[in-house]
Design a protein that fits this description.
alpha+beta, Helix Hairpins, 2 domains, 8-stranded mixed β-sheet, 3-stranded antiparallel β-sheet, 12 helices, 19 strands, 21% strand
Length: 426
Protein backbone atom coordinates (compact mmCIF):
# COMPACT_ATOMS: atom_id res chain seq x y z
CA UNK A 1 0.00 0.00 0.00
CA UNK A 2 1.16 3.49 -0.82
CA UNK A 3 1.06 6.74 1.13
CA UNK A 4 -1.97 8.71 -0.10
CA UNK A 5 -0.67 11.94 1.43
CA UNK A 6 2.61 11.50 -0.46
CA UNK A 7 0.68 10.94 -3.70
CA UNK A 8 -1.21 14.22 -3.14
CA UNK A 9 2.05 16.09 -2.54
CA UNK A 10 3.97 14.70 -5.53
CA UNK A 11 1.78 12.81 -8.01
CA UNK A 12 4.36 13.17 -10.78
CA UNK A 13 6.88 11.12 -8.77
CA UNK A 14 4.46 8.20 -8.48
CA UNK A 15 3.32 8.29 -12.10
CA UNK A 16 6.94 8.42 -13.25
CA UNK A 17 7.73 5.26 -11.24
CA UNK A 18 4.65 3.42 -12.49
CA UNK A 19 5.43 4.47 -16.05
CA UNK A 20 8.83 2.79 -15.64
CA UNK A 21 6.92 -0.40 -14.80
CA UNK A 22 4.86 -0.08 -17.99
CA UNK A 23 1.70 1.31 -16.39
CA UNK A 24 -0.44 4.23 -17.48
CA UNK A 25 -0.57 7.29 -15.18
CA UNK A 26 -2.61 6.35 -12.13
CA UNK A 27 -2.74 9.51 -10.02
CA UNK A 28 -5.54 11.33 -11.91
CA UNK A 29 -8.05 8.66 -10.89
CA UNK A 30 -6.60 8.35 -7.38
CA UNK A 31 -6.78 12.10 -6.81
CA UNK A 32 -10.30 12.29 -8.27
CA UNK A 33 -11.55 9.63 -5.86
CA UNK A 34 -9.65 11.20 -2.99
CA UNK A 35 -10.98 14.71 -3.71
CA UNK A 36 -14.57 13.49 -3.94
CA UNK A 37 -14.22 11.49 -0.74
CA UNK A 38 -12.78 14.45 1.15
CA UNK A 39 -15.58 16.69 -0.15
CA UNK A 40 -18.13 14.18 1.12
CA UNK A 41 -16.36 14.02 4.47
CA UNK A 42 -16.41 17.82 4.72
CA UNK A 43 -20.14 17.93 3.93
CA UNK A 44 -20.75 15.24 6.54
CA UNK A 45 -18.89 17.26 9.16
CA UNK A 46 -20.87 20.38 8.29
CA UNK A 47 -24.16 18.49 8.47
CA UNK A 48 -23.13 16.95 11.79
CA UNK A 49 -22.48 20.39 13.21
CA UNK A 50 -25.79 21.69 11.81
CA UNK A 51 -27.68 18.71 13.24
CA UNK A 52 -26.11 19.22 16.67
CA UNK A 53 -27.01 22.90 16.63
CA UNK A 54 -30.62 22.26 15.60
CA UNK A 55 -30.96 19.45 18.14
CA UNK A 56 -29.89 21.92 20.80
CA UNK A 57 -32.52 24.37 19.50
CA UNK A 58 -35.19 21.68 19.74
CA UNK A 59 -34.33 21.13 23.39
CA UNK A 60 -34.53 24.86 24.13
CA UNK A 61 -37.89 25.27 22.32
CA UNK A 62 -39.41 22.33 24.15
CA UNK A 63 -38.24 23.63 27.50
CA UNK A 64 -40.01 26.90 26.75
CA UNK A 65 -43.18 25.02 25.69
CA UNK A 66 -42.90 25.95 22.01
CA UNK A 67 -43.57 23.96 18.81
CA UNK A 68 -40.38 22.29 17.52
CA UNK A 69 -42.00 20.21 14.73
CA UNK A 70 -40.50 22.24 11.87
CA UNK A 71 -36.96 22.05 13.22
CA UNK A 72 -37.42 18.33 13.99
CA UNK A 73 -38.35 17.77 10.34
CA UNK A 74 -35.20 19.64 9.32
CA UNK A 75 -33.11 17.40 11.61
CA UNK A 76 -34.75 14.30 10.15
CA UNK A 77 -33.88 15.52 6.65
CA UNK A 78 -30.31 16.15 7.72
CA UNK A 79 -30.07 12.63 9.13
CA UNK A 80 -31.36 11.22 5.86
CA UNK A 81 -28.82 13.19 3.86
CA UNK A 82 -26.05 12.11 6.24
CA UNK A 83 -26.99 8.46 5.70
CA UNK A 84 -26.68 8.92 1.94
CA UNK A 85 -23.32 10.62 2.34
CA UNK A 86 -22.01 7.94 4.71
CA UNK A 87 -22.84 5.29 2.12
CA UNK A 88 -21.15 7.36 -0.59
CA UNK A 89 -18.08 7.94 1.57
CA UNK A 90 -17.77 4.20 2.30
CA UNK A 91 -18.10 3.39 -1.42
CA UNK A 92 -15.43 5.94 -2.34
CA UNK A 93 -13.11 4.66 0.40
CA UNK A 94 -13.53 1.12 -0.90
CA UNK A 95 -12.86 2.19 -4.50
CA UNK A 96 -9.79 4.10 -3.40
CA UNK A 97 -8.52 1.17 -1.36
CA UNK A 98 -9.04 -1.28 -4.23
CA UNK A 99 -7.23 1.05 -6.61
CA UNK A 100 -4.28 1.59 -4.29
CA UNK A 101 -4.09 -2.12 -3.35
CA UNK A 102 -3.59 -3.06 -6.98
CA UNK A 103 -0.69 -0.69 -7.59
CA UNK A 104 2.96 -1.75 -7.21
CA UNK A 105 5.60 -0.20 -4.99
CA UNK A 106 7.72 2.76 -6.01
CA UNK A 107 10.97 1.76 -7.69
CA UNK A 108 14.37 2.85 -6.46
CA UNK A 109 16.01 5.41 -8.73
CA UNK A 110 18.95 3.07 -9.33
CA UNK A 111 16.79 0.20 -10.62
CA UNK A 112 17.78 -0.16 -14.29
CA UNK A 113 15.15 0.27 -16.99
CA UNK A 114 14.27 -2.86 -18.92
CA UNK A 115 11.48 -5.10 -20.18
CA UNK A 116 12.28 -8.47 -18.61
CA UNK A 117 14.97 -10.70 -17.10
CA UNK A 118 17.19 -10.24 -20.13
CA UNK A 119 17.67 -6.60 -19.09
CA UNK A 120 18.77 -7.32 -15.51
CA UNK A 121 22.21 -5.91 -14.70
CA UNK A 122 25.03 -8.05 -13.30
CA UNK A 123 26.50 -6.77 -10.04
CA UNK A 124 28.89 -9.59 -9.14
CA UNK A 125 30.25 -12.75 -10.73
CA UNK A 126 31.73 -15.21 -8.22
CA UNK A 127 33.48 -18.51 -8.92
CA UNK A 128 34.33 -20.39 -12.07
CA UNK A 129 31.36 -22.06 -13.82
CA UNK A 130 31.94 -25.62 -15.00
CA UNK A 131 31.67 -25.55 -18.77
CA UNK A 132 30.91 -29.13 -19.77
CA UNK A 133 28.83 -29.86 -22.82
CA UNK A 134 28.25 -33.43 -21.63
CA UNK A 135 27.20 -32.50 -18.09
CA UNK A 136 24.05 -34.23 -16.91
CA UNK A 137 20.98 -32.46 -15.59
CA UNK A 138 19.85 -33.23 -12.06
CA UNK A 139 16.87 -35.36 -13.08
CA UNK A 140 19.13 -37.66 -15.10
CA UNK A 141 21.64 -37.88 -12.25
CA UNK A 142 18.92 -38.64 -9.71
CA UNK A 143 17.37 -41.35 -11.83
CA UNK A 144 20.77 -42.95 -12.53
CA UNK A 145 21.28 -43.17 -8.77
CA UNK A 146 17.74 -44.44 -8.20
CA UNK A 147 17.11 -41.62 -5.71
CA UNK A 148 14.82 -39.34 -7.71
CA UNK A 149 11.33 -40.58 -8.60
CA UNK A 150 8.99 -38.42 -10.66
CA UNK A 151 6.79 -41.27 -11.87
CA UNK A 152 5.56 -42.27 -8.42
CA UNK A 153 5.03 -38.63 -7.41
CA UNK A 154 2.94 -38.02 -10.55
CA UNK A 155 0.75 -41.03 -9.76
CA UNK A 156 -0.17 -39.69 -6.35
CA UNK A 157 -0.07 -35.92 -6.93
CA UNK A 158 0.15 -35.06 -10.62
CA UNK A 159 2.75 -32.99 -12.43
CA UNK A 160 5.30 -30.71 -10.76
CA UNK A 161 5.89 -33.01 -7.79
CA UNK A 162 8.87 -35.22 -6.98
CA UNK A 163 9.81 -37.97 -4.55
CA UNK A 164 13.34 -38.02 -3.11
CA UNK A 165 14.83 -41.16 -1.58
CA UNK A 166 17.66 -42.20 0.67
CA UNK A 167 20.79 -40.07 0.78
CA UNK A 168 19.29 -37.54 -1.63
CA UNK A 169 16.41 -36.86 0.79
CA UNK A 170 18.97 -36.54 3.55
CA UNK A 171 21.04 -34.13 1.44
CA UNK A 172 17.99 -31.89 1.01
CA UNK A 173 17.54 -31.75 4.79
CA UNK A 174 21.29 -31.25 5.31
CA UNK A 175 21.25 -28.21 3.04
CA UNK A 176 18.38 -26.67 4.99
CA UNK A 177 20.05 -27.29 8.36
CA UNK A 178 23.34 -25.86 7.09
CA UNK A 179 21.56 -22.73 5.80
CA UNK A 180 19.71 -22.21 9.07
CA UNK A 181 22.84 -22.65 11.17
CA UNK A 182 24.73 -20.14 9.01
CA UNK A 183 22.02 -17.50 9.18
CA UNK A 184 21.49 -17.98 12.91
CA UNK A 185 25.11 -18.22 14.03
CA UNK A 186 26.81 -15.85 11.59
CA UNK A 187 24.11 -13.31 10.79
CA UNK A 188 22.00 -13.26 13.94
CA UNK A 189 18.66 -14.35 12.54
CA UNK A 190 16.09 -15.78 14.95
CA UNK A 191 14.75 -19.16 13.87
CA UNK A 192 10.97 -19.42 13.72
CA UNK A 193 8.64 -22.34 13.01
CA UNK A 194 5.62 -20.46 11.60
CA UNK A 195 2.11 -21.44 10.46
CA UNK A 196 1.87 -22.86 6.96
CA UNK A 197 -1.82 -21.95 6.65
CA UNK A 198 -2.82 -18.28 6.83
CA UNK A 199 -5.91 -16.15 6.39
CA UNK A 200 -6.65 -13.44 3.84
CA UNK A 201 -5.33 -10.61 6.00
CA UNK A 202 -1.83 -12.11 6.20
CA UNK A 203 -1.52 -12.44 2.42
CA UNK A 204 -2.99 -8.98 1.93
CA UNK A 205 -0.38 -7.62 4.32
CA UNK A 206 2.55 -8.91 2.29
CA UNK A 207 0.95 -8.07 -1.07
CA UNK A 208 -0.05 -11.47 -2.47
CA UNK A 209 -3.76 -10.62 -2.19
CA UNK A 210 -5.82 -9.53 -3.94
CA UNK A 211 -3.65 -9.30 -7.06
CA UNK A 212 -2.03 -12.76 -7.08
CA UNK A 213 -4.77 -15.07 -5.79
CA UNK A 214 -4.45 -17.38 -8.79
CA UNK A 215 -0.85 -18.15 -7.84
CA UNK A 216 -1.93 -19.59 -4.48
CA UNK A 217 -3.57 -22.74 -3.14
CA UNK A 218 -6.69 -22.24 -1.00
CA UNK A 219 -8.24 -24.76 1.39
CA UNK A 220 -11.91 -25.45 2.00
CA UNK A 221 -11.60 -23.74 5.41
CA UNK A 222 -10.75 -20.35 3.86
CA UNK A 223 -7.08 -20.74 4.72
CA UNK A 224 -4.33 -20.29 2.17
CA UNK A 225 -1.18 -22.42 1.96
CA UNK A 226 1.83 -20.13 2.18
CA UNK A 227 3.73 -19.52 -1.08
CA UNK A 228 6.74 -18.49 1.03
CA UNK A 229 7.52 -18.15 4.73
CA UNK A 230 7.85 -14.42 4.05
CA UNK A 231 4.09 -14.23 4.62
CA UNK A 232 4.16 -15.75 8.11
CA UNK A 233 7.42 -14.12 9.23
CA UNK A 234 6.56 -10.61 8.07
CA UNK A 235 3.11 -10.78 9.66
CA UNK A 236 4.71 -11.39 13.04
CA UNK A 237 4.82 -7.58 13.34
CA UNK A 238 1.36 -6.86 11.88
CA UNK A 239 -0.93 -4.53 13.85
CA UNK A 240 1.85 -3.61 16.26
CA UNK A 241 3.91 -0.67 17.48
CA UNK A 242 7.54 -1.65 18.07
CA UNK A 243 10.04 0.20 20.23
CA UNK A 244 12.98 1.41 18.14
CA UNK A 245 15.38 -0.40 20.50
CA UNK A 246 13.94 -3.73 19.29
CA UNK A 247 14.95 -3.05 15.68
CA UNK A 248 16.25 -4.50 13.52
CA UNK A 249 14.33 -7.75 13.85
CA UNK A 250 15.68 -10.63 11.78
CA UNK A 251 13.74 -13.88 11.32
CA UNK A 252 14.50 -17.09 9.43
CA UNK A 253 12.45 -20.22 8.81
CA UNK A 254 12.69 -23.48 6.88
CA UNK A 255 9.28 -24.38 5.50
CA UNK A 256 7.56 -26.06 2.61
CA UNK A 257 6.11 -23.56 0.13
CA UNK A 258 3.12 -24.09 -2.15
CA UNK A 259 2.55 -22.38 -5.48
CA UNK A 260 0.07 -23.07 -8.25
CA UNK A 261 2.60 -21.87 -10.86
CA UNK A 262 -0.24 -20.21 -12.75
CA UNK A 263 1.05 -18.82 -16.00
CA UNK A 264 4.12 -21.07 -16.08
CA UNK A 265 2.72 -23.59 -18.55
CA UNK A 266 5.54 -24.86 -20.75
CA UNK A 267 8.26 -23.51 -18.44
CA UNK A 268 10.62 -25.98 -16.72
CA UNK A 269 8.28 -28.91 -17.25
CA UNK A 270 10.97 -31.46 -16.44
CA UNK A 271 13.02 -31.77 -13.28
CA UNK A 272 12.67 -29.97 -9.95
CA UNK A 273 13.23 -26.35 -10.99
CA UNK A 274 9.56 -25.34 -10.82
CA UNK A 275 7.42 -27.35 -8.38
CA UNK A 276 4.03 -26.93 -6.71
CA UNK A 277 5.66 -27.90 -3.39
CA UNK A 278 9.22 -27.09 -2.42
CA UNK A 279 11.34 -26.20 0.60
CA UNK A 280 12.93 -22.83 1.20
CA UNK A 281 14.89 -21.14 3.95
CA UNK A 282 13.47 -17.63 4.18
CA UNK A 283 15.00 -14.45 5.59
CA UNK A 284 12.90 -11.50 6.79
CA UNK A 285 14.13 -8.24 8.30
CA UNK A 286 12.15 -5.46 9.96
CA UNK A 287 14.01 -2.20 10.41
CA UNK A 288 13.86 1.58 10.46
CA UNK A 289 13.70 3.59 7.20
CA UNK A 290 17.24 4.92 7.55
CA UNK A 291 18.67 1.39 7.81
CA UNK A 292 16.74 -0.55 5.16
CA UNK A 293 19.16 0.02 2.26
CA UNK A 294 22.05 -1.17 4.45
CA UNK A 295 19.97 -4.15 5.62
CA UNK A 296 19.26 -5.05 1.98
CA UNK A 297 22.96 -5.39 1.25
CA UNK A 298 23.47 -7.39 4.46
CA UNK A 299 20.66 -9.82 3.62
CA UNK A 300 22.04 -10.36 0.12
CA UNK A 301 25.46 -11.06 1.63
CA UNK A 302 23.92 -13.66 3.95
CA UNK A 303 22.35 -15.48 0.99
CA UNK A 304 25.54 -15.30 -1.08
CA UNK A 305 27.56 -16.69 1.83
CA UNK A 306 25.69 -19.99 1.55
CA UNK A 307 26.81 -20.43 -2.06
CA UNK A 308 30.36 -19.42 -1.23
CA UNK A 309 30.58 -22.03 1.52
CA UNK A 310 29.16 -24.66 -0.84
CA UNK A 311 31.79 -23.76 -3.44
CA UNK A 312 29.19 -22.99 -6.10
CA UNK A 313 29.69 -20.43 -8.85
CA UNK A 314 27.02 -17.73 -8.98
CA UNK A 315 26.22 -14.25 -10.13
CA UNK A 316 24.19 -11.49 -8.51
CA UNK A 317 22.02 -9.19 -10.61
CA UNK A 318 19.85 -6.19 -9.84
CA UNK A 319 16.43 -6.63 -11.39
CA UNK A 320 15.29 -4.18 -14.04
CA UNK A 321 11.99 -2.28 -13.95
CA UNK A 322 10.14 -4.93 -15.95
CA UNK A 323 11.28 -7.79 -13.72
CA UNK A 324 10.98 -6.20 -10.26
CA UNK A 325 8.20 -7.69 -8.18
CA UNK A 326 4.94 -6.00 -7.22
CA UNK A 327 5.88 -5.19 -3.63
CA UNK A 328 9.59 -4.56 -4.13
CA UNK A 329 11.39 -1.21 -4.21
CA UNK A 330 14.61 -2.90 -5.33
CA UNK A 331 15.58 -6.55 -5.75
CA UNK A 332 18.80 -8.51 -6.09
CA UNK A 333 18.55 -11.95 -7.67
CA UNK A 334 21.28 -14.49 -7.00
CA UNK A 335 21.70 -17.04 -9.78
CA UNK A 336 23.64 -20.27 -9.29
CA UNK A 337 25.51 -22.01 -12.12
CA UNK A 338 23.93 -25.30 -13.27
CA UNK A 339 26.31 -27.33 -15.44
CA UNK A 340 23.49 -29.51 -16.77
CA UNK A 341 21.74 -26.49 -18.23
CA UNK A 342 24.96 -24.57 -18.89
CA UNK A 343 23.36 -21.45 -17.49
CA UNK A 344 22.76 -19.47 -14.31
CA UNK A 345 19.38 -20.00 -12.62
CA UNK A 346 17.74 -17.99 -9.86
CA UNK A 347 18.22 -19.42 -6.39
CA UNK A 348 17.42 -16.34 -4.29
CA UNK A 349 15.63 -13.00 -4.53
CA UNK A 350 16.36 -10.39 -1.86
CA UNK A 351 13.98 -7.43 -1.85
CA UNK A 352 13.64 -4.17 0.03
CA UNK A 353 9.92 -3.31 0.27
CA UNK A 354 10.32 -0.04 2.22
CA UNK A 355 7.02 0.66 4.06
CA UNK A 356 4.84 -0.90 1.32
CA UNK A 357 3.97 -3.99 3.38
CA UNK A 358 4.02 -2.15 6.70
CA UNK A 359 1.21 0.16 5.60
CA UNK A 360 -0.91 -2.82 4.61
CA UNK A 361 -0.13 -4.60 7.90
CA UNK A 362 -0.33 -1.46 10.08
CA UNK A 363 3.15 -2.12 11.49
CA UNK A 364 4.85 0.86 13.12
CA UNK A 365 7.75 1.76 15.40
CA UNK A 366 8.19 4.53 17.93
CA UNK A 367 11.31 6.20 19.27
CA UNK A 368 11.75 6.14 23.04
CA UNK A 369 9.91 9.00 24.73
CA UNK A 370 8.07 9.96 21.53
CA UNK A 371 4.32 9.74 20.88
CA UNK A 372 4.61 9.87 17.10
CA UNK A 373 4.92 6.55 15.25
CA UNK A 374 6.40 5.71 11.86
CA UNK A 375 5.97 2.75 9.55
CA UNK A 376 8.73 0.14 9.66
CA UNK A 377 10.55 -1.04 6.55
CA UNK A 378 10.41 -4.75 5.68
CA UNK A 379 12.78 -6.88 3.63
CA UNK A 380 12.66 -10.49 2.53
CA UNK A 381 14.94 -12.93 0.75
CA UNK A 382 15.56 -16.59 0.05
CA UNK A 383 18.43 -17.92 2.00
CA UNK A 384 18.20 -20.16 -0.13
CA UNK A 385 15.64 -22.12 -2.16
CA UNK A 386 16.56 -25.59 -0.86
CA UNK A 387 15.40 -27.54 -3.90
CA UNK A 388 17.42 -25.42 -6.29
CA UNK A 389 20.44 -25.67 -3.98
CA UNK A 390 20.02 -29.44 -4.12
CA UNK A 391 19.95 -29.28 -7.92
CA UNK A 392 23.11 -27.18 -7.94
CA UNK A 393 24.99 -29.56 -5.62
CA UNK A 394 23.89 -32.58 -7.66
CA UNK A 395 25.02 -31.11 -10.98
CA UNK A 396 28.23 -29.47 -9.75
CA UNK A 397 29.43 -32.36 -7.56
CA UNK A 398 28.43 -35.31 -9.74
CA UNK A 399 31.21 -37.67 -10.84
CA UNK A 400 30.09 -39.47 -14.03
CA UNK A 401 33.03 -41.91 -13.90
CA UNK A 402 32.09 -43.37 -10.51
CA UNK A 403 28.40 -42.42 -10.77
CA UNK A 404 28.41 -40.67 -7.38
CA UNK A 405 27.65 -37.22 -5.99
CA UNK A 406 30.49 -35.98 -3.81
CA UNK A 407 29.22 -34.28 -0.65
CA UNK A 408 30.54 -30.72 -0.13
CA UNK A 409 32.74 -30.48 2.95
CA UNK A 410 30.40 -28.10 4.80
CA UNK A 411 27.55 -30.61 4.48
CA UNK A 412 29.40 -33.70 5.70
CA UNK A 413 28.63 -33.07 9.40
CA UNK A 414 24.93 -32.91 8.48
CA UNK A 415 25.22 -36.15 6.49
CA UNK A 416 26.66 -38.21 9.34
CA UNK A 417 30.13 -38.00 7.83
CA UNK A 418 29.03 -39.37 4.44
CA UNK A 419 31.37 -38.11 1.73
CA UNK A 420 29.58 -39.39 -1.37
CA UNK A 421 26.11 -40.40 -2.47
CA UNK A 422 26.04 -43.68 -4.37
CA UNK A 423 23.48 -45.46 -6.52
CA UNK A 424 20.92 -47.75 -4.85
CA UNK A 425 20.19 -49.49 -8.15
CA UNK A 426 21.41 -53.06 -8.10
Amino acid sequence: MLDLAAIRENPAKFDASWTRRGLEPQTPEILRLDEERRAVQTELQDLQAERNAKSKQIGEIKREGGDADAIMQEVAAIKGRMGELEEREAALAESLNIHLSGLPNLLSDDVPDGADEDDNVEVRLVGEPKLKNDALEHQDIGEKLGLLDFETAVKMSGSRFVLLKGALARLEKALAMFMLDTHINEFGYLEVSPPLLVRDNALYGTGQLPKFAEDLFKTTTDHWMIPTAEVSLTNMVADSIIDTEELPMRFTAWTPCFRSEAGSAGKDTTGMIRQHQFYKVELVSVTTPDKSAEEHERMTEAAETILQKLGLAYRTVVLCTGDTGFGAHKTYDIEVWLPGQQRYREISSCSNCLDFQARRMKSRFRDKGEKKTQFVHTLNGSGLAVGRALIAVMENYYDPVDNVIHVPDVLKPYMGGMDKIESIIK
